[in-house]
# Entry
Amino acid sequence: MKMKKIFTILLAAIMLFSLAACQGGTTETESSSNTDSAQNITEESTVPETDSLEETSETEPAETSGPEASGQEASGPETEGSRILVAYFSATGNTEGAAQKLAEGLGADLYEIVPEIPYTSEDLNYSDSSSRSSVEMNDPDARPGISGAVENMEQYDVVLLGYPIWWGEAPRIMNTFIESYDFSGKTLAAFCTSASSGFGRSDSALREAADSSTWLDGIRFSSSASAEEILEWANGLGIN
Ligand SMILES: Cc1cc2nc3c(=O)[nH]c(=O)nc-3n(C[C@H](O)[C@H](O)[C@H](O)COP(=O)(O)O)c2cc1C
# Structure
Protein backbone atom coordinates (compact mmCIF):
# COMPACT_ATOMS: atom_id res chain seq x y z
CA MET A 1 0.00 0.00 0.00
CA LYS A 2 2.88 2.26 0.91
CA MET A 3 4.62 1.41 -2.43
CA LYS A 4 1.42 2.17 -4.37
CA LYS A 5 1.24 5.66 -2.77
CA ILE A 6 4.88 6.41 -3.65
CA PHE A 7 4.31 5.21 -7.23
CA THR A 8 1.20 7.42 -7.57
CA ILE A 9 3.09 10.49 -6.29
CA LEU A 10 6.01 9.75 -8.66
CA LEU A 11 3.66 9.31 -11.63
CA ALA A 12 1.88 12.57 -10.80
CA ALA A 13 5.25 14.36 -10.59
CA ILE A 14 6.36 12.97 -13.99
CA MET A 15 3.06 14.00 -15.60
CA LEU A 16 3.30 17.50 -14.14
CA PHE A 17 6.88 17.87 -15.38
CA SER A 18 6.16 16.66 -18.90
CA LEU A 19 3.07 18.89 -19.11
CA ALA A 20 5.10 21.94 -18.09
CA ALA A 21 7.83 21.05 -20.63
CA CYS A 22 5.22 20.61 -23.39
CA GLN A 23 3.57 24.01 -22.70
CA GLY A 24 6.96 25.75 -22.74
CA GLY A 25 7.72 24.32 -26.22
CA THR A 26 4.39 25.35 -27.67
CA THR A 27 4.77 28.96 -26.41
CA GLU A 28 8.24 29.20 -27.91
CA THR A 29 7.14 27.91 -31.33
CA GLU A 30 4.07 30.11 -31.45
CA SER A 31 5.88 33.25 -30.40
CA SER A 32 8.63 32.61 -32.94
CA SER A 33 6.17 32.10 -35.79
CA ASN A 34 4.28 35.29 -34.71
CA THR A 35 7.52 37.21 -34.85
CA ASP A 36 8.17 35.88 -38.36
CA SER A 37 4.78 36.90 -39.64
CA ALA A 38 5.09 40.31 -37.94
CA GLN A 39 8.39 40.81 -39.76
CA ASN A 40 6.80 39.69 -43.01
CA ILE A 41 3.97 42.25 -42.67
CA THR A 42 6.43 44.96 -41.76
CA GLU A 43 8.65 44.17 -44.73
CA GLU A 44 5.83 43.72 -47.17
CA SER A 45 4.11 46.93 -46.17
CA THR A 46 7.28 48.95 -45.78
CA VAL A 47 8.94 48.15 -49.10
CA PRO A 48 6.10 49.19 -51.41
CA GLU A 49 5.36 52.24 -49.28
CA THR A 50 8.96 53.39 -49.44
CA ASP A 51 9.01 52.75 -53.18
CA SER A 52 5.82 54.67 -53.78
CA LEU A 53 7.04 57.54 -51.61
CA GLU A 54 10.23 57.70 -53.66
CA GLU A 55 8.22 57.61 -56.85
CA THR A 56 5.96 60.39 -55.57
CA SER A 57 8.84 62.60 -54.59
CA GLU A 58 10.49 62.00 -57.97
CA THR A 59 7.41 62.54 -60.10
CA GLU A 60 5.85 65.41 -58.16
CA PRO A 61 8.28 68.16 -59.19
CA ALA A 62 8.13 66.98 -62.82
CA GLU A 63 4.35 67.14 -62.72
CA THR A 64 4.17 70.54 -61.10
CA SER A 65 6.67 71.97 -63.56
CA GLY A 66 4.55 70.82 -66.54
CA PRO A 67 2.36 73.42 -68.20
CA GLU A 68 -0.87 71.71 -67.19
CA ALA A 69 0.10 70.67 -63.72
CA SER A 70 -1.16 73.43 -61.49
CA GLY A 71 -4.68 74.80 -61.41
CA GLN A 72 -5.83 77.76 -63.41
CA GLU A 73 -4.65 80.98 -61.88
CA ALA A 74 -5.97 84.30 -62.95
CA SER A 75 -2.90 86.10 -61.63
CA GLY A 76 -0.18 84.49 -63.71
CA PRO A 77 0.87 81.76 -66.15
CA GLU A 78 0.73 78.17 -64.97
CA THR A 79 4.47 77.69 -65.23
CA GLU A 80 7.29 80.13 -65.43
CA GLY A 81 10.52 79.88 -67.31
CA SER A 82 9.62 79.52 -70.99
CA ARG A 83 10.18 82.30 -73.51
CA ILE A 84 6.89 81.39 -75.20
CA LEU A 85 3.53 82.25 -73.66
CA VAL A 86 0.20 80.84 -74.81
CA ALA A 87 -2.48 83.27 -73.61
CA TYR A 88 -6.06 82.36 -74.31
CA PHE A 89 -9.67 83.23 -73.61
CA SER A 90 -12.23 80.45 -73.78
CA ALA A 91 -15.90 80.76 -72.90
CA THR A 92 -16.90 77.12 -73.37
CA GLY A 93 -13.63 75.18 -73.33
CA ASN A 94 -12.83 74.62 -77.03
CA THR A 95 -10.04 77.17 -77.27
CA GLU A 96 -8.77 76.07 -73.90
CA GLY A 97 -8.28 72.53 -75.24
CA ALA A 98 -6.30 73.82 -78.21
CA ALA A 99 -4.25 76.16 -76.00
CA GLN A 100 -3.35 73.35 -73.63
CA LYS A 101 -2.19 71.09 -76.48
CA LEU A 102 -0.18 73.96 -77.93
CA ALA A 103 1.51 74.88 -74.65
CA GLU A 104 2.24 71.27 -73.81
CA GLY A 105 3.73 70.56 -77.24
CA LEU A 106 5.89 73.68 -77.21
CA GLY A 107 6.82 73.53 -73.53
CA ALA A 108 5.33 77.02 -73.32
CA ASP A 109 3.75 78.76 -70.35
CA LEU A 110 -0.04 78.87 -70.33
CA TYR A 111 -2.17 81.78 -69.19
CA GLU A 112 -5.94 81.90 -69.17
CA ILE A 113 -7.51 85.29 -69.78
CA VAL A 114 -10.24 85.16 -67.14
CA PRO A 115 -13.08 87.68 -67.39
CA GLU A 116 -13.73 89.74 -64.26
CA ILE A 117 -17.38 88.88 -64.77
CA PRO A 118 -17.74 85.33 -66.08
CA TYR A 119 -19.92 84.78 -69.17
CA THR A 120 -23.15 82.93 -68.46
CA SER A 121 -24.92 80.90 -71.14
CA GLU A 122 -27.42 83.76 -71.53
CA ASP A 123 -24.47 86.11 -72.05
CA LEU A 124 -23.27 83.87 -74.89
CA ASN A 125 -26.63 83.67 -76.65
CA TYR A 126 -25.79 85.05 -80.10
CA SER A 127 -29.42 84.70 -81.18
CA ASP A 128 -30.34 87.38 -78.68
CA SER A 129 -29.29 90.84 -79.88
CA SER A 130 -29.43 92.16 -76.31
CA SER A 131 -27.21 89.42 -74.79
CA ARG A 132 -23.94 90.54 -73.28
CA SER A 133 -21.81 89.05 -76.09
CA SER A 134 -24.01 90.64 -78.78
CA VAL A 135 -23.85 94.02 -77.05
CA GLU A 136 -20.07 93.82 -76.62
CA MET A 137 -19.46 92.74 -80.20
CA ASN A 138 -21.68 95.52 -81.49
CA ASP A 139 -19.48 98.03 -79.66
CA PRO A 140 -15.89 98.20 -80.99
CA ASP A 141 -14.90 100.13 -77.86
CA ALA A 142 -16.20 97.55 -75.38
CA ARG A 143 -13.36 96.37 -73.12
CA PRO A 144 -14.55 93.69 -70.69
CA GLY A 145 -12.37 93.53 -67.57
CA ILE A 146 -9.80 90.81 -66.96
CA SER A 147 -9.22 89.22 -63.58
CA GLY A 148 -5.51 89.01 -62.78
CA ALA A 149 -2.52 89.74 -65.01
CA VAL A 150 0.68 88.33 -66.48
CA GLU A 151 3.25 89.72 -64.02
CA ASN A 152 6.31 88.70 -66.05
CA MET A 153 5.36 89.61 -69.62
CA GLU A 154 8.90 90.93 -70.29
CA GLN A 155 10.13 87.32 -70.01
CA TYR A 156 8.39 86.29 -73.24
CA ASP A 157 9.73 86.73 -76.77
CA VAL A 158 6.73 85.01 -78.33
CA VAL A 159 3.06 85.27 -77.34
CA LEU A 160 0.46 83.03 -78.99
CA LEU A 161 -3.06 84.38 -78.53
CA GLY A 162 -6.05 82.08 -78.55
CA TYR A 163 -9.75 82.95 -78.69
CA PRO A 164 -13.12 81.75 -80.01
CA ILE A 165 -14.55 83.46 -83.07
CA TRP A 166 -17.46 85.70 -82.12
CA TRP A 167 -19.25 87.13 -85.12
CA GLY A 168 -16.14 86.68 -87.25
CA GLU A 169 -13.95 88.53 -84.77
CA ALA A 170 -11.89 88.03 -81.63
CA PRO A 171 -14.00 88.68 -78.51
CA ARG A 172 -13.50 92.18 -77.13
CA ILE A 173 -11.75 90.82 -74.04
CA MET A 174 -8.81 90.06 -76.36
CA ASN A 175 -8.61 93.79 -77.06
CA THR A 176 -8.52 94.42 -73.32
CA PHE A 177 -5.66 91.94 -73.04
CA ILE A 178 -3.60 93.25 -75.95
CA GLU A 179 -3.97 96.86 -74.70
CA SER A 180 -2.81 95.89 -71.21
CA TYR A 181 0.84 95.18 -72.09
CA ASP A 182 3.72 96.45 -74.15
CA PHE A 183 4.28 93.84 -76.85
CA SER A 184 6.82 95.82 -78.84
CA GLY A 185 9.73 93.71 -80.00
CA LYS A 186 7.81 90.50 -79.40
CA THR A 187 6.56 88.02 -81.97
CA LEU A 188 2.83 87.42 -81.88
CA ALA A 189 0.47 85.00 -83.61
CA ALA A 190 -3.20 84.25 -83.06
CA PHE A 191 -5.15 81.02 -83.20
CA CYS A 192 -8.88 80.60 -82.84
CA THR A 193 -11.61 78.00 -82.69
CA SER A 194 -15.00 78.38 -84.32
CA ALA A 195 -18.08 76.44 -85.34
CA SER A 196 -17.40 76.95 -89.05
CA SER A 197 -15.96 80.41 -89.79
CA GLY A 198 -12.38 80.64 -90.98
CA PHE A 199 -9.65 82.68 -89.31
CA GLY A 200 -10.37 85.56 -91.68
CA ARG A 201 -9.26 88.91 -90.38
CA SER A 202 -10.20 88.09 -86.80
CA ASP A 203 -6.86 89.31 -85.47
CA SER A 204 -6.85 92.65 -87.34
CA ALA A 205 -7.90 94.78 -84.34
CA LEU A 206 -5.28 93.03 -82.23
CA ARG A 207 -2.59 93.66 -84.85
CA GLU A 208 -3.52 97.34 -84.90
CA ALA A 209 -3.25 97.59 -81.12
CA ALA A 210 0.21 95.96 -81.09
CA ASP A 211 1.63 97.30 -84.33
CA SER A 212 5.23 97.38 -83.21
CA SER A 213 5.27 93.63 -82.80
CA THR A 214 6.09 91.05 -85.44
CA TRP A 215 2.85 89.28 -86.37
CA LEU A 216 2.87 85.80 -87.89
CA ASP A 217 -0.03 84.20 -89.77
CA GLY A 218 -2.83 82.96 -87.55
CA ILE A 219 -4.95 79.87 -87.88
CA ARG A 220 -8.41 78.51 -87.12
CA PHE A 221 -8.88 75.11 -85.48
CA SER A 222 -12.02 73.06 -85.06
CA SER A 223 -13.01 72.14 -81.52
CA SER A 224 -11.69 68.61 -82.16
CA ALA A 225 -8.29 69.62 -83.53
CA SER A 226 -5.56 67.15 -82.62
CA ALA A 227 -2.28 68.00 -80.93
CA GLU A 228 -0.46 67.00 -84.17
CA GLU A 229 -2.51 69.44 -86.23
CA ILE A 230 -1.97 72.24 -83.74
CA LEU A 231 1.75 71.62 -83.43
CA GLU A 232 2.18 71.39 -87.19
CA TRP A 233 1.07 75.01 -87.32
CA ALA A 234 3.18 76.07 -84.33
CA ASN A 235 6.32 74.32 -85.58
CA GLY A 236 5.88 75.99 -88.97
CA LEU A 237 6.07 79.43 -87.36
CA GLY A 238 9.80 79.10 -86.76
CA ILE A 239 9.54 80.27 -83.17
CA ASN A 240 11.18 77.37 -81.39
C1 LIG B 1 -21.32 84.99 -79.12
C2 LIG B 1 -20.82 83.93 -80.05
C3 LIG B 1 -20.59 84.21 -81.37
C4 LIG B 1 -20.11 83.22 -82.23
N1 LIG B 1 -19.87 83.53 -83.54
C5 LIG B 1 -19.38 82.58 -84.37
C6 LIG B 1 -19.10 82.89 -85.73
O1 LIG B 1 -19.25 84.00 -86.20
N2 LIG B 1 -18.65 81.88 -86.54
C7 LIG B 1 -18.46 80.60 -86.06
O2 LIG B 1 -18.06 79.74 -86.83
N3 LIG B 1 -18.69 80.30 -84.76
C8 LIG B 1 -19.13 81.25 -83.90
N4 LIG B 1 -19.36 80.96 -82.60
C9 LIG B 1 -19.02 79.61 -82.10
C10 LIG B 1 -17.65 79.62 -81.40
O3 LIG B 1 -16.69 80.33 -82.13
C11 LIG B 1 -17.12 78.20 -81.19
O4 LIG B 1 -18.08 77.41 -80.54
C12 LIG B 1 -15.83 78.22 -80.41
O5 LIG B 1 -15.14 77.01 -80.61
C13 LIG B 1 -16.04 78.43 -78.92
O6 LIG B 1 -14.81 78.45 -78.29
P1 LIG B 1 -14.67 78.39 -76.72
O7 LIG B 1 -15.28 77.09 -76.28
O8 LIG B 1 -13.21 78.44 -76.44
O9 LIG B 1 -15.41 79.56 -76.14
C14 LIG B 1 -19.85 81.92 -81.74
C15 LIG B 1 -20.09 81.65 -80.40
C16 LIG B 1 -20.57 82.63 -79.56
C17 LIG B 1 -20.81 82.31 -78.12
Notes: The chain has two domains: 1-65, 72-236. The first strand starts at residue 84 and ends at 88. Residues 90-96, 124, 126, 133, 164-168, 193-197, 223 surround flavin mononucleotide (CB under 6 Å). The helical segments are 2-65, 94-106, 132-137, 172-178, 204-209, 227-236.
